[in-house]
Specification:
Helix content: 40-55%
Radius of gyration: 22 Å
Strand content: 5-15%
Order of helices and strands: HHHHHEEEEEEEEHEEHHHH
Number of helices: 10
Strand order of the largest sheet: 2-3-8-7-6
Shape: globular
Structural class: alpha+beta
């Protein structure tokens, strides 16, 4: 074993892509990540480098100018990028979810219009579902789209947009009641609207405002924002898929692959925390020997490495299940839940190994310690994952008495 989290069964192209990404992470991301993170600075040069590598089009079909790769390949690339700096993987993820939703659910005109430019990174995607008054209760969404001739008028306030400022295309989930009589289940009266905008903050198009960045504990560099729609008019051909009432299902499909992505991010951050912990343990001396030779530290390293391996295996399984065309909400929920929880624990153990120095901003582990908590809530909390897992298990193991 040369390092943890190896993946069996990859082809030559996948191995070459991952080697290229890992080299980019080691040379272009890790050396500058902590400095940029402390300044909360958008990683422009890193993002441009990822564009040149073709990562913005990694899963976009070749006919639209992408690389046409699998979810597994994408997840393994995300794992490598998060190992360098989790914020960069977030920039890619929201773009990827929108591209995936377009590929799976968009009209031919929508695919032709957006996917080629998304593959080049010229159009950047953002994903907007949450609102200030709701968390995981998607059915409580109050933002609304009302038909007005050949347009829709959108009103409402959305929350927690990754890429909110830098994006130029936002997939926004709203209620749309036309054609859905009163009493229709909430999830059947939701529509995804494709909203084009200019990058930046303030009023980015008439009726659409992106306030400033939300100041966060971690996950810095990437812009996380609100989105305010005030009589925002968009053409009817920007309803994703061309038909209203399908937005909930489209968004959940996107979230499902997003959960594999968050699991991959957890794996990457945990890997980096282990690398930092095992390296420091061999350099730091107490009582006349490196602390790595103390049994207590060896136990910690053993537990950390086992968690890294287990989380990686579950993430790979979830990605491969989705790639096979099978339903993977159970596997994605398990992978996201386990990887995010294990990531928190591995990072904390690495922090403890560093002792007092882990509390210093001079050491990289301090940044990871602030970043890991975001994975506990991103793409659904642990409690939501447990609900999904529990319901699916009861479907699979239905009592036949």
């Amino acid at each position: 074993m040369t390092r943890l989290a190896q993946t069996a069964g990859l082809n030559d192209i996948q191995r070459e892509i991952l080697s290229t990404v890992r080299d980019f992470v080691d040379k272009k991301i890790i050396p500058v990540a902590t400095q940029l993170e402390h300044r909360d600075e958008y990683p422009t040069e890193i993002v441009e480098g990822l564009k040149e590598l073709g990562l913005f089009g990694l899963m976009i079909p070749e006919e639209y100018g992408g690389l046409g790769e699998s979810l597994l390949t994408y997840a393994l690339c995300v794992e490598e990028i998060a190992r360098g700096w989790m914020s960069v993987s977030g920039i890619i993820n929201t773009h990827f979810i929108v591209a995936y939703m377009l590929k799976q659910h968009g009209t031919q005109e929508q695919k032709d219009t957006f996917l080629p430019r998304m593959a080049l990174g010229e159009v950047r995607g953002a994903f907007s579902m949450s609102e200030p008054a709701l968390g995981s209760d998607v059915s409580a969404i109050s933002s609304k789209g009302v038909k007005d001739g050949e347009e829709y008028i959108l009103n409402g306030q959305k929350m927690w947009l990754t890429n909110g400022g830098t994006s130029t295309l936002v997939a926004v989930l709203c209620r749309s009641d036309e054609g859905h009589p009163e009493g229709t289940a909430p999830h059947k009266s939701m529509t995804t609207f494709l909203v084009e905008k200019e990058p930046g903050f303030g009023e980015v198009r008439p009726g659409l405002t992106i306030p400033g960045k939300i100041d966060k504990m971690g996950y810095k560099g990437v812009d996380t924002t609100e989105l305010i729609m005030d009589d925002l008019r968009i053409p009817a051909n920007r309803v994703l898929g061309g038909t209203t009432g399908r937005g909930f299902y489209q968004m959940m499909d996107g979230v499902e692959v997003g959960r594999v992505n968050v699991a991959a991010r957890g794996c990457g951050v945990a890997q980096r925390a282990f690398e930092l912990g095992v390296s420091y343990a061999q350099q730091r001396h107490t009582f006349g020997k490196p602390i790595a030779q103390h049994q207590a530290i060896q136990f910690k390293l053993a537990e950390m490495a086992t968690k890294v391996e287990a989380a990686h295996a579950m993430m790979v399984n979830a990605a491969r299940k989705k790639d096979s065309g099978e339903r993977n909400d159970l596997e994605a929920g398990m992978a996201k839940y386990l990887a995010s929880e294990y990531c928190k624990e591995v990072v904390e153990d690495a922090f403890r190994i560093h002792g007092g120095y882990g509390f210093s901003k001079e050491y990289e582990i301090e940044r990871l310690y602030r970043e890991a908590p975001m994975l506990l809530i991103g793409e659904g909390t642990a409690e939501i994952q447990k609900m999904i897992i529990g319901r699916r298990l009861l479907e699979e193991y239905r009592f036949q008495g």
